[in-house]
Amino acid sequence: MKLERVEIVHVEIPLVTPFRTSFGTMTTKDTFLLHVVTDTAEGWSEFAADPEPRYCSEFVAGAELVLRDFLLPRIAALPQLTVAALAPAMVKTKGHELAKAALETAVLDAELRSYGMALATYLGAVRERVPAGVSVGIKDSVPELLDDVERYLAEGYVRIKLKIEPGWDVEPVRAVRERFGDALSLQVDANTAYTLADAEHLRRLDAFGLLLIEEPLDENNLYAHAQLQRRLQTPVCLDESLHNARDTASAIAMEACRVVNVKPARVGGYLEARRIHDVAHAHGVPVWCGGMLETGIGRAPNLALAALPGFTLPGDTSASSRYFAEDITEPFVLKDGHLPVPTAPGIGVEPLPDVLRRFTREKRDLYV
Ligand code: OSB
Ligand code: MG
Fold it and tell me: Which residues form the Mandelate racemase/muconate lactonizing enzyme C-terminal domain (predicted)?
């Protein structure tokens, strides 16, 4: 393929309800889409991070600069644009996995559309639908939390994840377990809010039969997570600390985690995400697909990935209605607790032009 044009479309979409985590509260999805035009096909992707670097070091305005000044010039210079050539061409720009993932995914979408192949087929998916979990934010009170969980269970979600932080952990977990019973698949996510000094406190969560505790300690501190895992029965799952397949291999070897959260954006894209899946699956370590409150443009390719054989736990791949009153693609709808894996070529969806126009704040060409 030959790169002809790359357009960046900044969007701002209201969330149906504020989403509070240990690192902040979000009320809108404020990010950008990339639209890549080549001589044979067009592709779309969504940047996964936020305007402020709170979940990870990347952020919307920084990613735009990195794309414009460093990543796009390198890939525009490629004699043949293929998705396989992208990561090697971008390797001299350190880090910036989420920006690289956005570019790689839009090119992947275009390339697969030029072959008429669905992403799920390309990645090696073995399922036509994937079970859906839901990530429930921190609330002002336990009764409010119980109402939310009850509503999600009534909608059919098959697994509940509670966001936790110091002061909002044992009590909400106990209340949810008591109210909904031992059969509920329940897990928690601390987004790095604790330290090893909290190990005895976190051990109290062992009483509630959790599937896992996600990223309890500092990002990238595999040693501390291994120390913590030795003191907990609850399996530790890493999110923020895993940036590539090599990190994942190290974390598994060190027993820093017993479960792996894969977010394609966090690891530089779907090619590396598949390698992480392969490494974890080969070790018998369960993998699941995380989320970043994506619109349909980011959700569609995550569903394709989540259909790989090693994704043995439900992901944070919830229906569009969990996030938005109106999605910018045809909405993903929950059916019997599952979401369908897209089957159309590429990522399988496109923005609805009218809706996209209404949610667009700004757009410009990053490359012509
Ligand atoms: O840590 O998994 C996380 C959302 C934004 C940033 C980080 C995380 C999350 C979620 C929600 O937990 C996942 C989703 O429903 O998309
Ligand atoms: Mg997480």
Answer: 142-235
What pLDDT is recorded for position 327? 98
The model's pTM: 0.98
Whether 92 is catalytic is no
Give the C-alpha separation, 93 to 335, whole Å: 42
Q: Does domain 3-115+350-367 sit in CATH 3.40.50.12780?
A: no
Number of residues that this document lists for the chain: 368
Of 92, 139, 163, 335, which is the active-site residue? Answer: 163
- Asked if 58 and 98 touch (Cβ cutoff 8 Å), the reply is yes
What's the alpha-carbon Rg for the chain, to the nearest Å? Answer: 20
CATH code reported for the domain at 121-340:
3.20.20.120
- Helix or strand run (H / E) with residue 154: helix 142-155
Q: Whose CA is nearest to atom 6 of ligand 1?
A: 292
- According to the model, what pLDDT value does residue 245 have? 98
Q: Domain ranges in the chain? A: 3-115+350-367, 121-340
Residues touching ligand 1 (Cβ under 6 Å) are 55, 135, 189, 191, 239, 290-293, 316, 318
List pLDDT tens digits, range 108-122.
999 999 999 999 999
State how beta strands 259-262 and 24-38 pair: unpaired
Predicted pLDDT at 288: 98
Distance (angstroms) between ligand 2 centre and the Cα of 161 equals 10
